[in-house]
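Weekly sync, protein design subgroup
Attendees: M.S., D.O., the rotation student, P.L. (late)

Item 1: inverse folding check
M.S. brought a backbone from last month's batch and wanted to see whether the design step gives back something sensible before we order anything. D.O. pointed out we never logged the input encoding, so this time it goes straight into the notes. Structure tokens as presented (153 positions):
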């Protein structure tokens, strides 16, 4: 079938067309941010991946001030954070809980994201209402006891 005939066929096809794109716009960010405000953890994810077993997890993470993602690591997975809105402090730690490096990501600072290598302790602190785009390898594995670093002050 030629390309022209294929296009003509597709235009006449009675089958229903499904949306193929998920649009990341202010409407979606506001919807997920509203859910984060109501959450006891003051954060909410919006997954683009269809299953926790998928090989690549892509999602929005909406954070409200007062939430802190505990210091944790992923022994076999890197993790990328890109700021879409707001301001978040990302820190890395050694095994004793001492801060190795900190970075504030925001459009104002011109630092738009970070990539955390596998097995590096890291934590996030929300400094103002924020939305992150996160990406990491799947499948999802619940943190084991040694996956969260307890920092004694």
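Designed sequence read out in the meeting:
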């Amino acid at each position: 079938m030629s390309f022209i005939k294929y296009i003509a066929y597709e235009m006449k096809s009675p089958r229903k067309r499904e949306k193929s794109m998920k649009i990341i716009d202010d409407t979606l960010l506001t919807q997920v941010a509203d859910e984060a405000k109501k959450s006891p953890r003051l954060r909410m994810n919006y997954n683009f991946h269809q299953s926790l077993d998928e090989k690549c997890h892509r999602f929005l993470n909406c954070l409200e001030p007062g939430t802190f993602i505990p210091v944790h690591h992923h022994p076999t997975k890197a993790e990328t954070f890109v700021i879409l809105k707001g301001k978040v402090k990302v820190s890395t730690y050694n095994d004793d809980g001492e801060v190795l490096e900190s970075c504030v990501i925001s459009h104002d600072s011109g630092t738009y994201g970070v990539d955390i290598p596998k097995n590096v302790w890291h934590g996030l602190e929300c400094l103002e209402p924020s939305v992150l785009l996160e990406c990491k390898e799947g499948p999802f594995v619940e943190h084991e006891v040694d996956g969260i670093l307890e920092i004694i002050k």
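Discussion: The beta strands are 43-47, 56-63, 68-72, 79-93, 99-106, 113-116, 121-137. The CA atoms of residues 77 and 118 lie 5 Å apart.
Action: P.L. to compare against the previous round before Friday.
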